[in-house]
Amino acid sequence: MTAAIQQEILSLEQNHNIKILYTVESGSRAWGFASSNNDCDVRFIYVYDYDWYLSIEEKKDNIECILPNDIDLAGWELRKALLLFKKSNPPLLEWLRSPIVYTEQLGTALQLRLLALEYFNPKSCLYHYFNMARRNYEAYFKEEEVRLKKYFYILRPLLACCWIERTGEMAPVEFNTLVEAEILDVQLKHEIQDLQALKMSGEELDKAARIPIIDEFMQNRMEHFEQYLKDYEGKHELGYDKLNAVFRNTLKEAWG
Q: Please, where are the H alpha helices in 97-149?
């Protein structure tokens, strides 16, 4: 699988006249609760040559394609990525911390990792994760029986909120790290870990009765963060200078 992804990256570079700076796994495989039949969600950051940027018309700033073997490939152009980085875009911050890296060339991803603490905006990420948890809860937890795998799409963003509230830093990508750090109740932790093991074993996790101890935790945390965010004061966004430097340095490094 890795070889197929790396070969496709080379093909994209040639076909689009771009340099792909960084390619990672995103989604459930990176989070650590994928089953064997989960798709690969491959994400990348790329840069065009100088001429592409020396133009006044609007241009497409992303590339998307579906490959054989259920590989979902999607990437953002560097300028788009930097503008999102400035706003503490959580998916992009997760890409930069993904435990599964397929390709990394030049120094761009490393520079952004070094700048991440400085540019990190807790409020932006708290709202993102809280709203993700709330949307999934409202969409999938209306009845007494639920699709059990949907628990993970509520638990992970809520645990990310817990981490950010506690540390003031971006949450880890890995679900296990969040569970170990943020779940103190032993019984609750065992219930979550058992459910995770079941999902990763390849079980479809169709509808079943809800798990009261996990439900109680999720409801408690959603009520907490709904109130917490009402009075939460964020920090001011930083300026463009350092990100402009990353952009210019990347262009020079990529194209001379």
A: 108-119, 122-140
